[in-house]
## 1
Amino acid sequence: MSQRAAKLDFPVSQVRRYLEPGPIVLVSSARGNERNIMTMGWHTVMEFTPSLIGCVISGGNHSFGLIRESGECVINLPTTKLTDIVVGIGNTSGADIDKFEHFGLTAEPATRVKAPLIAECHANFECKLADDGLVDKYNFFIFEVVKAHVATSPKHPQTLHYEGDGVFMVSGKIISRRKLFRPGML
Ligand SMILES: Cc1cc2nc3c(=O)[nH]c(=O)nc-3n(C[C@H](O)[C@H](O)[C@H](O)COP(=O)(O)O)c2cc1C
């Protein structure tokens, strides 16, 4: 039997459906007395040490100003338990509501930044803006993770991965090929 599937032309604007693996995160921010949360799928690891993460934060989002001006945020990792809240946060504006209050989430003080952690999330990564050189052109922020908090269990949290069009894929089966990796590649 052939290993090759038949393929059709595919709209390039929809390639994101295959290359946007997630996991979906919630980005919390603060400016003065104001705090906010947005849902984010467009992020990428850029370096291990320092721990650099690149993200697209649209200029139309209320979070954009809070994060650009404070130079800080927290990247929080929700699990499937928070699916409807993740969608709600991504479809409302911090200009209209306090999303912590509205969605019943707990804001906990962070260690290295003023933006709050979201207690209900599996992990919280405190970030400082490391480079805003691509913000004006692409809304692309480069953050350094300066402190990380991760729940001890479950070891493999069930995370959400956005496919676009309101559909999520859920992380699942874990497989290991550790033995085939070159030393130092882990
Ligand atoms: C699943 C999902 C993923 C999203 N990913 C991003 C993203 O990567 N970057 C972005 O700028 N907006 C993204 N959004 C949209 C923002 O979360 C949305 O505009 C939100 O209302 C912004 O909140 P704010 O205006 O309070 O900052 C996403 C929304 C959803 C539902």
## 2
Amino acid sequence: MYGIDTDGPGSTSGAVDLRSDTLTRPTPAMRRAMAEAEVGDDVYREDPTVNALEERVAELFGHQAALFVPSGTMGNQIGLRLVCEPGQEVLGDADAHVLTYEMGAAAALFGLSSRTVVSDGGRLSADQLIEQVRPHGDWHLTATAAIAVENTHNRGGGLVQPLAELQRLFDWSRGAGVNVHLDGARVFNAHAASGVPLATYGRLADTASVCLSKGLGAPVGSVLVASAERIAAARLWRKRLGGGMRQVGVLAAAGLHALDHHVERLAEDHEHARLLAEQLGVDPATVETNMVVVDDVPAPAVAEAAKAQGVLVGQVSARRVRLVTHLDVDRAGIDRAAKVLTQVVGELTGR
Ligand SMILES: Cc1ncc(COP(=O)(O)O)c(C=O)c1O
């Protein structure tokens, strides 16, 4: 079995852990911010730190309101429910996290149908999706209520979606009665790589879920942004799903700290990914953000041999490994990983 974010449980202390950017641990400064956070009962909307985080993220992404949720999965699934009714469908890429890696949640929880197109390695083509949209009011067809996009695209190796395609899809959707949901688990990486303002990405979606716990390094948390009306409905869905949290300002404080200190530095992770790619002979054009995909290698054997030398990599398939750079891997770690992986891949493939 090949997981997207895991190579199985186990102690990893001291290792250079490139399995995922979800593996970061809160920094000492982040922990201090958490310890000092002002808190209240957030279900009563009395947690000042959560309120501050929600206001800040809504503004950053150019939306009226926001909701702090425990995970990207909850942000995505509530986001989809806001823009799609039971019995309608969400259309997206076959490798989209929301449709393929969230355990069928949209169907299991909300009765949403989904349909997928096979994209060019995750890269968004507005026309490819538009061609597949099915109308409302047909006697037989499942109406397409929403289109889900992912930026950066995880299975696409961290690729940044072309702004022109996002714009074209959103412009088209206005006249078509179709909503757009953005899975922005790594939209901060997209912003750091492309220079496109976060508000531009945000405004090209009706609902967007953005993660604080990926490249930004917070231990927990995502934020869903949308109109004030939709976020009021989202608050009810979050409570129904058991996501109503209490003195959760301690976690929101980590998110605020990450927004203050960990956005600019994503460029460093991207530079580290490029360095790794260069040293491993991976085409640097395939490395747009913080992920390096190494193809045509015996993934389980590479993972095992690298682990024995203290370097952890993700196995995406039998012949593909993935390296994700992040806050907890510094330049020395990158050099060490490059050395170990060059040797291991060389020995196992003869290249
Ligand atoms: C693209 C993408 N979307 C959503 C998620 C879900 O986030 P979470 O693990 O916080 O539920 C992930 C997790 O890695 C992801 O990679």
